[in-house]
Amino acid sequence: MRIIYAGTPEFAAEALRALLAAGHEVPLVLTQPDRPAGRGMKLQASPVKQLALAHGLEVAQPRSLRLDGRWPEDAADAQRRLAACGAELMVVAAYGLILPRWTLALPPRGCINIHASLLPRWRGAAPIHRAIEAGDARTGITLMQMDEGLDTGAMLSVAEEPIQPDDTTATLHDRLAVLGGRLCVELLAGAPWPTAIAQPEAGVCYAHKIEKAESAIDWRQPAEAIARRVRAFDPFPGASFSTAAGETIKVWSAQALPADRARAAAEPGTVLDATPDQVCVACGDGSRLAVLTVQRPGGRRQPVAAWQQAQPDLAGQRLVADGSA
């Protein structure tokens, strides 16, 4: 099939890779403009652009697709290029730009979106993060026929994926990316085209964009909730706290422990004990969190044993979320 592809991050690159391997023709790829990245803040092409160029595909990077928006010349150029493609379908995955009505109506078969959740749960920008943070037991991929709403389109295909107890956003992302590509290839290989099913009205929730400010650990929360957030915010933005000395520490792995009645009255954020294997911190509802892997400013991820060598006498210290001791 002749397909226009729109996507930006690695999640989208995986599906494009699968479509190309299946023999689909991609005359045009849409992706976000190059962004500054790395320590030198040099312009860097998106994973989708890098893959497209490696396969000799034509790439367009409009700043907007709105003909009446801030960059109408970008939108008009994109409109001409999309219309000239003669594509039957547009496949969209984590593109990052809103598709206006003219875009949705251009391909004869419309636009389908590869979304990383079991819709209508977790519509929006961060479905993988929010599913882990909420403690969901399962998630998946939904292929939907796009409309003008935010992930409100009718569903064409759905596949579930269990969330493992040790899954981070990084590990779950990689499995869902492969699943999304496979499901899309299977959909396009099928005949006839499936009937789209409207999303249920019940169970709608939104996966709001992850903000860096959310990284601060609130020790007043139960340990289980904090442990889920640690996993959900790996690799970005990370979960962090500050020591009594004002050093910001990121936590990359942690485990909720059973409540200790003898220490249930300890103020949340208090280090109850520190061993070479873990640092045990009091949390809300009398629960305890074992901090296992951390990262100091400018350093690398390391076991807590290495951190304790630079931070002796942790037991009894108070850890805070906002940098004030």
UniProtKB/TrEMBL annotation:
InterPro entries: Fmt (IPR005794), Formyl_trans_C (IPR005793), Formyl_transf_N (IPR002376), Formyl_transf_N_sf (IPR036477), Formyl_transferase-like_C_sf (IPR011034), GART_AS (IPR001555), Met-tRNA-FMT_C (IPR044135), Met-tRNA-FMT_N (IPR041711). It catalyses: L-methionyl-tRNA(fMet) + (6R)-10-formyltetrahydrofolate = N-formyl-L-methionyl-tRNA(fMet) + (6S)-5,6,7,8-tetrahydrofolate + H(+). Coiled coil: none annotated. SUPFAM superfamilies: FMT C-terminal domain-like, Formyltransferase. Residues 209-309 form the Formyl transferase C-terminal domain. CDD domains: FMT_core_Met-tRNA-FMT_N, Met_tRNA_FMT_C. Its EC number is 2.1.2.9. It is an enzyme of class 2 (transferase). Keywords: Protein biosynthesis, Transferase. The keyword Lipoprotein does not apply. GO terms for molecular function: methionyl-tRNA formyltransferase activity. Residues 1-186 form the Formyl transferase N-terminal domain. NCBIfam families: fmt. Attaches a formyl group to the free amino group of methionyl-tRNA(fMet). The formyl group appears to play a dual role in the initiator identity of N-formylmethionyl-tRNA by promoting its recognition by IF2 and preventing the misappropriation of this tRNA by the elongation apparatus. Belongs to the Fmt family. This is Methionyl-tRNA formyltransferase. It comes from Pseudaquabacterium rugosum. The lineage of its organism: Bacteria, Pseudomonadati, Pseudomonadota, Betaproteobacteria, Burkholderiales.
